[in-house]
Each structure stands twice: as structure tokens, then as C-alpha cells.
Amino acid sequence: MSSTSDKIKGNANEAIGKAKQGIGEATGSERLQGEGVVQEVKGKGQQAMGDAKDAAKEAADRAAAAARRAAE
Fold first, then answer.
1. What are the C-alpha distances in Å from 27 to residues 13, 16, 21, 33, 71?
2. For 6-59, what is each residue's pLDDT tens digit?
3. Which stretches of the chain are assigned E, i.e. beta strand?
4. To 10 degrees, what angle do helices 3-27 and 30-71 make?
5. Measured distance CA(19)–CA(17) in Å, rounded
6. 54 neighbors 5 (Cβ within 8 angstroms)
């Protein structure tokens, strides 16, 4: 999965999780509130994974560019 799709899914899970929490709070459903918290945390994790993939790709690109410069 690409970093962009991780971030998109993460944003969606965060938004859905927050909505579930709000609905759970409004209806008094602790179960729905709990599900919302779990889904929101999952979304934050997905976004972090996307950020980590971006950072790894940038580091690899910098290393490859440095190696090309050194070979010249």
C-alpha cells in the first residue's frame, strides 16, 4: 500500500471514529464510543505509517543521489 493510500485511509478512519464517538455520546452508547476511539487510533496509526513510508523514500532518494554524485 502506498503512503498516500495509508494517509487517505487513516483520515477516513479518524473521521469515522470521531463520528462514532459523537453518536455514542449523544445516544449514551459506551460500546459505540469505544469503537470510535479504537477506529480513530487505527486511523492515526495508518497516517503515521504513511508518513514513515514517505520519510524512508526520501532518505533512499537522497542516498541514491549522493551515490550518483560520488560516482561522477
1. 21, 16, 10, 10, 66
2. 999 999 999 999 999 999 999 999 999 999 999 999 999 999 999 999 999 999
3. none
4. 160
5. 5
6. no
Q: Could you give the 3-state DSSP secondary structure of residue 1?
A: coil
User: What is the pTM assigned to this prediction?
Assistant: 0.80
Q: Report how far residue 44's alpha carbon sits from residue 50's, in angstroms, rounded to the nearest whole number.
A: 10
DSSP 28: T
Q: What angle do CA 16, 29, 35 make, to 5 degrees?
A: 40
Extract the C-alpha cell encoding 67: 551515490
